[in-house]
């Protein structure tokens, strides 16, 4: 189904994005005829010096992630920067998963995504101890998650508002928890921009720490550390 998404150089991409956002922001679970997910590791092509970017399927996957993010977060300051999103998803593709839905009018709507990746211990300590010195929520991802010793950044876990509390939302959080839990992390960190995100962070055993201010907006840093 990703073949119907525009590639990065497709001139129809802006119009597709506008139409897709209008549809996803209006969708309700009653409209969903079927839903499924696609992982970043599933759309990688052959090894290339260009990495994930060499795969047309992965590039369309990244476009889908971006569309899902914009649909989930209507406030511009809360939205992801495409370059940062694509960079993280290319560095650690197995931590990114796009959720899609079919409706009567649309074959594949990007209605949510889950994303996590390992980060350097220095990045973790900066978020834990000095979040008030940061000006954005960018975190450089590592390419490997060392079992039992990884500091994980919970990049995102969201669906569009019309799917809150739905089977899609529950499945996303359940799979996300299983994937993150399987790593045996040393720490978990998330930056939340909504009460919904904060509730999920609390369910992961994370506690609110010093806030982070982005473009004048206060966002919450949540952290869990292994005892």
Question: Layout of helices and strands, plus pairs?
Answer:
Elements: H1 13-26, E1 34-39, H2 56-72, H3 82-91, E2 96-102, E3 109-119, H4 121-130, E4 151-159, H5 167-183, E5 187-192, H6 195-203, E6 207-208, E7 212-214, E8 217-225
Parallel strand pairs: 4-5
Antiparallel strand pairs: 1-2, 2-3, 3-4, 5-8, 6-8, 7-8
Helix pairs in contact: 1-2, 2-3
In a few lines, what is going on in this structure?
With 227 residues, this protein is of the alpha+beta class. The chain has helices at residues 13-26, 56-72, 82-91, 121-130, 167-183, 195-203, and strands at 34-39, 96-102, 109-119, 151-159, 187-192, 207-208, 212-214, 217-225.
Main attributes of the structure:
single chain; 227 residues; alpha+beta; 8-stranded mixed beta sheet; 8 strands; globular
Structure in words:
The protein is an alpha+beta fold. The protein is 34% helix and 23% strand. It has six helices and eight strands, in the order αβααββαβαβαβββ. Strands 1, 2, 3, 4, 5, 6, 7 and 8 form an eight-stranded mixed beta sheet that branches. A hairpin with a 6-residue loop joins β2 (96-102) and β3. α1 (13-26) crosses α2 (56-72) and α2 packs across α3. The longest helix is centred in the first third of the chain and has 17 residues, at 56-72. The radius of gyration is 17 Å and the shape is globular. It starts with 12 loop residues before the first helix and ends with a strand. The model has no long low-confidence stretch (mean pLDDT 94).
């Amino acid at each position: 189904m990703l073949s119907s998404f525009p590639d990065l150089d497709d001139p129809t991409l802006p119009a597709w994005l506008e139409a897709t956002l209008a549809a996803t922001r209006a969708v309700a679970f009653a409209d969903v005829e079927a839903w499924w997910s696609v992982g970043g590791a599933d759309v990688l092509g052959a090894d290339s010096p260009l990495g994930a970017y060499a795969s047309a399927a992965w590039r369309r996957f990244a476009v889908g992630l971006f569309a899902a993010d914009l649909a989930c977060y209507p406030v511009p300051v809360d939205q992801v920067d495409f370059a940062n999103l694509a960079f993280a998803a290319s560095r650690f593709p197995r931590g990114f998963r796009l959720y899609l839905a079919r409706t009567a009018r649309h074959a594949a709507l990007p209605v949510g995504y889950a994303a996590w990746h390992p980060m350097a211990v220095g990045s973790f300590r900066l978020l834990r101890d000095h979040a008030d010195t940061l000006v954005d929520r960018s975190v450089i991802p590592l390419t490997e998650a060392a079992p039992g010793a990884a500091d994980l950044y919970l990049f995102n876990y969201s669906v569009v508002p019309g799917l809150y509390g739905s089977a899609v939302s529950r499945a996303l959080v359940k799979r996300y928890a299983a994937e993150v839990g399987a790593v045996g992390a040393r720490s978990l960190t998330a930056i939340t921009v909504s009460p919904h995100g904060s509730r999920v962070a609390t369910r992961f055993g994370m506690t609110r720490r010093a806030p982070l201010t982005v473009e004048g907006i206060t966002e919450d840093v949540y952290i869990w550390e292994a005892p």
